[in-house]
Fold:
Amino acid sequence: MSAHSSESEDSSSCDGVDKRHLSCCDSGPASPKLTIVVGDTHFSEEKRFLVQSCDYFQALYRSGMKECQQEEIHLKCLHARGFLIALMVLRGEMPVLDGDDIVEAIECAAFLQVALLTKHLINLIDSDNCLLMYHTAATFGLMDLYHAAALFIRNMYPNLEAEVQKTLPSELISYVESLTPSVFVAVGAHVTCGVDETVHAACRTVCYLDETGNNWKVLTDLPLQASTSMAGVTVLDNKLYIVGGVHGLHKHVVESCFCYSVENNSWSRISSPAQLRYNLSLVGVDGRLYAIGGEYERTVMSSVETYDIKTGQWGFAAHLPRPVAGAACTKAMSRIFVCLWKPMETTEIYEYVSRKDEWQLVTTLIRHQSYGHCMIGHRDNLFVMRNGPSDDFLRCLMDCYNLNSGQWSSLPGHFANSRGSLFTAVVQGDSVFTLNRSMTLEYAVEGKNWKPRRQMKGFPRSGSVWTFMLQLPDALMVQ
Structure:
């Protein structure tokens, strides 16, 4: 963290902020500067940047109050460290926060209504800090973080219950226990079927794992016109989306796209991308679906389209650097990443930067006779699963890339990959669920290591499988 000293000889230290006058965030052409005084620390910032980034300053300059005419504004109820963390996040950094940092950052996010800081805090929730996040968010009324931390605790409750009962007030415990934990959901690859094909339609189901009974149960039937064969399948805001896919031996593209709402236990159609596609990657972030690459009439594409959930409209985004089909894709820290292969033995990871509408090369992984086939995001780590030597898919190898440090590390040993289990991995809290016909295996993610936690019943379907997490209402769970 850098700090610029002022000409004043009177500098002070405030919770790790070493200089009295700090300047962050160059926001292009010059606009009037403001001095923000937090405690005995002065921050010099462009007024336009603060108004665009923060609801508090936006409301302040719409109010007509006398502070609008001042060149210096005092924020008496905040800590300098929290304000500095907010500035770091607003300029695109991802600071790792300890206990005191978290409390002061939540205080700042709540008081100044800094949405990006709230999102960053949500991305940082883990088993070590979730109770602190939850209790502090409740104290300051930061409701998005409050609910996200409560759901994290509920999903990890078997591992956290003793500490929850010991440290949290009863009203906070009651709210956690009132929530329904997310469940592990799977759907096989199915083509569309005719109305009269009732035998074929009977197996076209979306299923969830009942962990208590260690058994798979049917959640819903797929619509007759829906295909999950070579389709894009993802979950966003607790809704399941299916885009594209194929039917028939000649891989005719499916035009209909669907959304399943667990709240209403119903399917609805959504509009199709302008460019029909199959064998695409589909990921959802911040109220948008991203349909990445894929094929059409056996031609591999580099085009990318985004679907705005609120407007129901598709639009094109920046093309990928090169055509790709079935690319490994994930989200981490609310950012989108995709693996692209490049001969020889090179896996390149690109990030889609939405504010610039461009794909940026993040890092390159070179491994002998091996490419990344699946990528999982967990906090600020990207885990890349790849085939073993000489295309040995029964022995999966794994590497980890840390977004903050920019460093690669290899996870020790081989991971059993019978029938592609690790290529369908999905994160819940600090756990990763993997799946094949023989077993469902939950791993505990501890830093950059995966440790087997428990084994449950496998998914009794052959072929490709899509997996994800959904938070189901009690009414669906008792069916």
In short: The domain at 21-124 is CATH 3.30.710.10 (Potassium Channel Kv1.1; Chain A). The first strand starts at residue 21 and ends at 23. The chain has two domains: 21-124, 186-277+325-477. Residues 121 and 267 are 33 Å apart (CA to CA).
